[in-house]
Amino acid sequence: MSTTFNVVDPELRHEQIELRVAEARAHGKLRKEYKFRNGEELPLISLPIGTPIYRLENYRTRDKQLSLEAQTAVPPGFFNPKRREDSSVQAKQHQILLDQAKTGSGETIKPIYEELERVRLQTDEIIVSADGVVVNGNRRLAAMRELHRADPSAFSGFAHVNCMVLPKSATVDEIRSLEIALQMQPETKLPYEWTALGRAVRDLRDANVPEQEIMNEMNRSKSEIQRAVKMVEAAEAYLDSWLDKPQNFDLLKDTEQAFIQIATRNLGKQDNVAQREVTRQFDFFLVEHRTLLSDSAYTLINTIETNPDAFLTAVAVEFGVTLEAAAPASEPKPEINFDDDVGAGVDYGPLVDLLIAAREDDEGRERTVRTIEEVCDVVAEQGKNRDKAALKFAVKAEKNLTLVDLTTAAPSTYYEINAALERCIERIEKLQHQLQELNESRA
User: Fold this and answer.
1) 10 Å Cβ neighbour count for 318?
2) Could you give the number of structural domains in the chain?
3) Between β-strands 160-165 and 40-48, what pairing exists: parallel, antiparallel or unpaired?
4) Which helix or strand (DSSP H or E) is residue 163 part of?
5) Do 421 and 385 lie in a common domain?
6) Domain span holding position 320
7) In terms of Cα–Cα distance, which of 192, 157, 155, 5 is closest to 95?
8) What is the DSSP letter of 83?
9) Per the domain annotation, does 183 fall within a domain?
10) Residues 386, 440: one domain?
11) How far apart are CA 427 and CA 431, in angstroms?
């Protein structure tokens, strides 16, 4: 059920908080927050449950906000922080936070909602700005509000919420850093989405925060924060340039491991930029059709990016595509380019055309997925046991042919069977000719 919000007038809310802050200071009700200004003491107050408002800049909710806008479920700019006093915006933010409050992590981390429902008591203070915007504890507040709304008597302990209040002088950068320091470290109870982590690192970089300081705030290594940014950049390119559904982060479910590979094995490589742009499209194809895969997209992408030359050459053979030298590029190309002409070297345009066309029909999509998987299997095997790979695949091909029983084949398949056998004969003749040349060269 959607909660109706009656947002407290901002001036009244500010006056109410200011009065209670003064009372807290007079009675020494202060508590240190060690992640804010090296341990500044903050006033501890109690507010009616309806007084604080949710922070729209919350990194944890940004993916869902962008997805709702991308899906036209809300108008563009609906979650602009300038609209924070709008009751409809607060109601929508509440629903996002409530859904997250009802989500745990595996078998070890219980949802906040369930825990508060059980104990019926606020165990940790939330942190709010001087004007009542929740900096830390948005999900807890959403859960307490919903429980109290559903049964005010049973959850009377949630009629008021305990808050630590930041000073008026707290800056936007300090508030953002506090959120990151409190919630984005690895030991956080409910981990942030990987996209939120990458977005936060990028925002801090854009704000000219030194890299070492970012590492300290997040308690993460240099390689981790660098990878986080590359992952979100790859995800944005996938949504925008590949799916043509920019900002729809809902489409990234179960893709973290795949984008780790894309970030480190593709975007992290500068050996052949044009070639990596092509393999990135194969990576994106596998992410898009991950539900059709027999293996994980992570594993297949690793194989593709470990030996892109071998993969592209082999997949071209399987698709019957001839790779020719590309014409010299006449002008600079964008970093992520999905045009046919991808740069100097080999012209992978026909191969890319075939890959993109495969997305248009179910049969072509399924057939392309299986072909990529088979090629990856070959390339991976060649990488592990290069000297025995040819023998292994020749024996495997022989065994597969022995399984062909024409007596059970439907007449409608005769033509395609014959075409496949002719391709086998052609391939066998080429291999036999190559084998003869190799034997002669050794004589």
Assistant:
1) 14
2) 3
3) antiparallel
4) strand 160-165
5) no
6) 254-396
7) 5
8) G
9) no
10) no
11) 6
